[in-house]
Amino acid sequence: MLNRYPLWKYLLILVVLLVGLVYSLPNLFPADPAVQISSDRGELTLDESQRMGLEDALSAANIEVKSVEEEPNSLLIRLRKADQQINARDLISQNLGEGYVVALNQAESTPAWLASFSASPMSLGLDLRGGVHFLLEVDMEAAVKQRLEVNASAMRESLRKERIRYRNSEVNGNTISMDFVDAEDRDTARQLISQEFPDFQYQNVERERGAGLSMTISDAAVQEIQDYAINQNLTTLRNRVNELGVAEPLVQRQGPDRIVVELPGVQDTAAAKRIVGATANLEFRLEARSDTPDNETESLSFRNEPNRSADLMRDVIISGDSVSSANRGFDENGRPQVNINLDGTGGTLMNRATRTNIGRNMAVVFIEHKTHDRTVMKDGKQVVEREPYTERGIISLATIQSALGNSFRITGLESPTEAGELSLLLRSGSLAAPIYFVQERTIGPSLGADNIERGLLSVQVGLLLVVLFMFIRYKAFGLIANVALAFNLTLLVATMSLLGATLTLPGIAGIVLTLGMAVDANVLIYERIREEIRNGMSIQQAIHAGYERAFTSIVDANLTTLLVAVILFSIGTGPVKGFAVTLSLGILTSMFTALMVTRAIVNLVYGGRALKKIWI
Fold it and tell me: Which of 32, 238, 248, 581 is in Cβ range 3.0-4.6 Å of 78 for a Cys bridge?
């Protein structure tokens, strides 16, 4: 029969709409501003008196607490006002002292019955929630140089094991060069090294005295090192951000050598920059003996005593890359220290180096990559150039009493804060290459709230204009289209919530555009119905023909737009992706509501009836 759906199709549409309603409801419950407390040692231990003390301190500072909730290894304090978050965070940090991580957060307020269905609100982007945006650049040249220095150290170790004499060893650009006493030693060394390091191109160099060997790393190996550096930095930055306790952070690659870091809800730019951008690493080296050749030693000053220095071996036993875990602690005299556990390879190397050097001093070297800006003249214009440099300083120099294994400690740190930050950086991993801040931007929570308010206003205005147009133009059928439009908006929000998509300001623009496109299909259908009635077709046949004959045009038009949205998502970044997500999801939901939901309503109202006139 014309214009009648079978029962199963009505039930299917009803189920889809009910599911959409359930999973869109959490968005009516905005997140609470909150402060999250966790321990930098993993497990949080706060007794009842400490918690009561925190609540009393917040109350005394006129900071309204909504609730206090215990979570696994953390404590969540919900506040009533967003502008009191930073004050609450600072006050809690002062009261708890060292050993705790106090972070700003946004706590979901979804009712328990909705949470039981795994329903949660959409994630809000940085422009709607407020927070910190960093654009970082990875120093690719430094990544290659670091790898070459490690390779040069391994080459020297191999030559010493085989008792092959060499004089000089230096890294210049992408080339490692070594000098030997004679050509025979050079040829033997070349044969040995080329087997262990096949990624180099080897060339003999004639010297006035002795013989030289030049080893240039291949372009393919350089590309591999650079890809590894940026991927390793991505992993390290994600670990550091997780240590900060930020909810729903964004850390992603942008282009060949840049990384975007967005920390929603974080307002302390200095603290975030200090942790995210820290390029600290450690090296463990033996102190040089008095008879060690000068080309194998390096003189470094102590980090906290610049006037004091020590001669160290250039060869590194292990670096911070071998650290599997690190925690802050205190020694028997109450001085800060960092307790370190090494991975299997690091523990083996440390044991091998220390068991044969008992009684000898071993240094812990702190390495930090920094930059300073200098103004130079280029083409008659003043240009600011960033000049990178590296600071190396000895943290501690202690005598090896016995062979060390996978666990030991670092002392000689100035303060518990320094020990805490060093342990955090070691836990999250060291950077494979230095990174520099190209851009930083802070968006306050008030600006984010203003963006949400303006975005909602644009959706409301757009929805109102579309509803009025459809009702005035198509009367009862316009009312049906408006009901379907409300369902479309509900399904769009539910789908974004289910997929965990992040809503941004351009995403709201995509929703507004979707509202207009959602009724576009109904316009095609209704105009076709009117045309068929004018041509003398019966009302039931006109309704049937309107939906059937407009179907192809609707699908073609939406598929072309969907294709553009997919392309935008695949090649776009940040805001463009947010727009593409809402646009593509909106196209799919609008096709469902226009072709299925409105047809179902029309069938229920008009189907199977003898009609002489319809209000269209």
Answer: 32
